[in-house]
Please model this.
Amino acid sequence: MNFPLRIAVHGGAGTMPKKLMSAETESLCHQALKQALTSGYAVMHAGGSAVDAVETAVKVLEDFPLFNAGKGAVFTNKGNHEMDASIMDGSNLACGAVSGVSHIKNPVQLARCVMDHSEHVFLLGKGAEEFAALHQVPMEDDTYFFTQLRYDQWQKALKKSITVLDHVDDKKFGTVGAVALDAQGNLAAATSTGGMTNKLFGRVGDSPIIGAGTYANNSSVAVSCTGHGEYFIRHVVAYDVHCLITYKGMSLEDATRYMVMEKLKSADADGGLIAIDHEGNIALPFNTPGMYRGFMRSPEDMFTGIYA
Ligand code: ASP
Model:
């Protein structure tokens, strides 16, 4: 049976207030989202898998300097970039994740490499970088990851001695992610982030944690989250969406709405998620004023949005 191709992407919940957003920046963000969607869709259209599609889409978003992942990742308290990423294949529950990695051009590619070429799921810091070198995963020096916007945000946070979630700063561009359904009915999800500006002590958010920021299972749903990572970890958000669908029989719409608009909101947790279920339904809920987001159901049916 041929399933309908579906892909959805996000560039973080919590968008810049509309009055601070120039028409040029807004259009650049739409372009990046569209490019991610069309690149991922093209992979599946050519017979590639949902896993290939989400990796491709996330790489496009990592390469776009305004989003907080890959090039454009935020600065840590020490003035470097420590990035997190994960990927999951819903057809067999295989997954790969990396955390606290520097110098990796596309952290999602390294997460994929961990999934495909190691017997492990999650590699950390220096070990993950050694593994990347072994598998010729492309690396860049610090200058590649530098952007003035992120440097200025870090300086501001340093002065106030605070750790800043992308969503809180005025100039908000976030974590990135993708979910997809391929023609064979396989679901996949991937998420990538620089985390929080001025983060301390090797902080890890939800994005690389399977079940919290990322989850995919062919029997139910593929989910990629964005928001205040500590809350997404506590509430095991991505896996909980799977549970609501699997054990409670909820629809994708009801399960994701309940999670984002009721459960997270009542915990004062800002954020959103993108999800596709095994029938090809798509949900993109967020409880913030906006979320960089989009989906594609066919070459004629593509949507990108920023504000509610
Ligand atoms: N969830 C990410 C983190 O806590 C941040 C984000 O989505 O913007 O690292």
